[in-house]
Amino acid sequence: MNTALELEWYDFVCFGIVGLAFLGAIWVLWMHEGASQSKLGTLEENLLVGLQDSTGVVVNVVLRDRVIGQVRSTPQLWTSCWRGLHPLFLLITRFLSFVVMAVLLPLDVREYDASIFVYYTEWTFTLVMIYFALGTIISAHGCWQYINKPPLQNGEMAEFLRRDLEESTNSIAYREKETKSSIRLQSQYIQEEFNQRVGFWGYLMQITYQTSAGAIILTDIVFWCVIVPFLSISHFQLNMLMVSMHSLNAVFLLLDTALNNLPFPWFRLSYFVLWSCGYIIFQWVIHACGFTWWPYPFLELNTPWAPVWYLCLAVIHIPLYGMYSLIVKAKNTILPRFFPRAFLRTY
């Protein structure tokens, strides 16, 4: 079999860069997601809950060591950060976003055939579409719960813990017998029941959202700031469909960010890195199998400058993810000042 991938010494440097990025991302996720304690397919996360008993004594129940970003209760997956905004509005927004993207993707494939999936854009567009599909399903389930039984407010988790604690022991006995072992047992019980309520799909939805955030920044910046103004590709012709594919993904996700209640922890940059590593490995595989051209020139291996490009590509994931993180941070710091009665920050 002919191969379009001829290896030189500097190619192995590129392999090493991608390999280190991949292993580093796995290590970060192992440390923060707690893969060793995953149960029933769910990703365990850290949780710090302040519990105040009837006498005003605050007891901190710590699940593992650190506090990281995750939803504290199921309603955060399908309710808005805007007080009084009905969950149905977020459901409609996610559903319409999914429908538009589900129409555009087949149109793009019909226009350019299935080989269009050699582009990172198609991967990212599909990932964002999957997020909106998950968001639609979870929002629909949440709206059904909302209609049948209105959700508890921000103190839901604290109330849940308080009720559980009151059933097991009274507050006086708890204060007298509080020890590390009892806290650990209580934590395990809370963790199991909490995970049943949030579930695997809630974690998957968050991960897809946070990965998509970094990926759309990378996709759109490369397209609008590098490919369009500087690169001349023989089969490249800007049209309305291409403009939509490289803009609506960001527009829809930013709109969802403005409405949703989801956290945006820094450590999940690792999923963004893994996503990009997966795409690069895919490119290596198809070129080893005979694919002859590179969709992005900076991924080419047949140049001594390849390690520099790959190193820059690895490093740039940090500021790109940071850009979206700043958007979320601005949302949670600026909007409450302008709309103190309307904006509701729950994490």
TrEMBL record:
Residue intervals passing through the bilayer: 12-30, 88-107, 127-147, 213-232, 238-259, 271-296, 308-327
Domain of life the protein comes from: Eukaryota
Alphabetical keyword list: Membrane, Transmembrane, Transmembrane helix
GO CC annotation, single: membrane
This protein's name: Protein rolling stone
Record lineage: Eukaryota, Viridiplantae, Streptophyta, Embryophyta, Tracheophyta
